[in-house]
Amino acid sequence: MPRCAPSWAASLLGCRCLQASPAALANPAIGVTHVLRYRPAEAPVAAANVFSVDLSWLAPPPGHTPGAPLAFAGYHSPADPFFIASSSGTTGAPKSAAISFGLFYRRALESKAELSSARRASCLFFSVSPVGSRYFSAIALAGGTIVIQGAGQPLDQDVDLVVGAPAQYADMFRTRATASDFSRAEAFVAGSSITPDFVRRLFETFGRVRYRYGSTETGPVCGIALARPEDFDGTVGSPLPGRTAEIVDEHGVAQPPETPGLVRVKTPHLVDGYLGDPEATARMFRDGWFYPGDIGALTAEGRLRLLGRANDQVNVYGTTFALADVESRIAGVSEVEDAVCFVENDGEGLPRVAALVRPQPGAVSSALAERIVSACRAALPTAAVPWAVYAGDVVPRNQHGKPDRKAAAAAAKRATRVI
What's the rounded Cα separation, in Å, for the pair 349 and 357? Predict the structure, then answer.
């Protein structure tokens, strides 16, 4: 049974659905009353009503006459919440926002227009995540066939579109057989930012690449289409139709091209705010603008270049820099499949940058660590060069494909330190 089916069924009954997490269960503004469990072995949760999903969910309701259509009274209003979505929460507590039936439908319709040429598509996003559910619905609305594939299964040879986040593509390259010819297929990338090395890796498998920059709160904001690796200019592209992106200083004054500052965006598909968090709502939703927390600059042509996260800036030995910049340098080392950086105590009370990396099989060595340090030293300030490199099989990322730094710091304690 498709994993998304119970969620659709619950929404038809008037329930509000969200992907389970400790933060969601603890948020009184959400008020979780029931939990769907897919596997009996899943850890117990603190909720009054826990339902285990099985094939009985496919049976018609009691008293239903065979052959008769099933009745559905419908929701009261398109403004009713359909989906409660969590933001990425990469450096702080995740925030929750309600996506209404109307907003979800408008986003899906727009994505349908973007994916209308897809005949057979594979979506790497979790089907009940905000992004995954939108693209699953869009592909279906466009009349395409959705290929459901388990983790580690070879990519279906007949797909002409694959949708996913950068981390999901990295996992696909690592765990799935992709030796077949996918040069006629397109990679549609959404989620965290991309690098030139990642783009080149995509073109080793796919014939075309499209990238979308956005968030749970906004939906897609900017985009870029690439026909070859050389077309990638390091930006996330220009604002999509109906969207606006600006760079402002701390007082909200718009900045000229090539001047770094805070990114703010306007989109017709913006949520109303965060559930149970008026302070975050007031801080990030202002005068029709949404402030996603990114630092960036606009090119003279109006394309948006991301430079890091405002709350991802760290100060080590008086030097301020973005951990994402360190990760980008580490990702450029050929033997590294993925990396997440964090700040840890060096044992003497001083903060130091550390990196948890997932090397290619057989690549764990002190020589690899030295190449990582050299790559960082060549382009970054001394304080940003990792003092410790840990090698592990899993690099923690959240459902949006963004780094989970707290989980990475915890995982590093169980990993192998190579420098």
Answer: 24
Q: Residue 413 has which token pair? A: 């304690």
Report the distance separating Cα 118 and Cα 395, nearest Å. Answer: 32
Assign 156 to helix, strand or coil: coil
End-to-end Cα, the chain, rounded Å: 46
Q: Which of 320, 299, 301 is nearest to 311 (CA)?
A: 320
Q: Are strands 244-248 and 261-266 parallel, antiparallel or unpaired?
A: antiparallel
**DSSP single-letter state for residue 282:** H
| Cβ density class 296-333: b for 16+ within 10 Å, e for less | bbbeeeebbbbbbbbebebebeeeebbbbbbbbbbbbb
Tokens of 72: 């559905």
Give the Cα separation of 15 and 9 in Å (integer): 9
Q: β-strand 336-345 against 351-359: which pairing, if any?
A: antiparallel
Tell me the pLDDT of the chain (419 aa) as tens digits.
Answer: 445 555 566 666 667 667 666 667 777 777 777 777 665 555 555 555 776 666 676 677 778 888 887 766 666 788 888 888 877 544 456 688 999 989 999 999 999 999 988 899 998 887 767 788 889 999 999 999 998 866 667 777 889 999 988 878 877 877 665 556 788 899 999 977 788 888 998 999 999 999 999 988 999 999 999 999 999 999 999 999 999 999 999 899 999 999 999 999 999 999 999 998 899 999 999 999 999 989 999 999 999 999 878 877 888 888 888 898 899 899 889 889 899 999 998 887 889 999 999 998 888 778 898 999 999 999 999 999 999 999 998 898 876 677 889 999 999 999 989 88
Question: Phi and psi for 409 in degrees, rounded to 5?
Answer: -65, -40
What contacts 102, CB < 8 A, 6 or more positions away? 78, 79
Give yes or no for a contact between 88 and 398, defined as CB atoms under 8 angstroms apart: yes
pTM beyond cutoff 0.85: no
> DSSP string of 110-176?
HHHHHTTT-SEEEE-S-TTSHHHHHHHHHHHHTTPEEE---TTPPPPTT-SEEEE-HHHHHHHHHHS
C-alpha–C-alpha distance, residues 52 and 40, integer Å: 7
Helix axes of 366-377 and 323-331: crossing angle, nearest 10 degrees: 120
| Residues whose CB falls within 8 Å of the CB of residue 302, separated by 6 or more in sequence, listed in order | 238, 239
Under 8 Å between Cβ of 110 and 269:
yes
CA triplet 377, 382, 383: central angle to 5 degrees? 130
Count of residues making up the chain = 419
Identity of the amino acid at 405: R
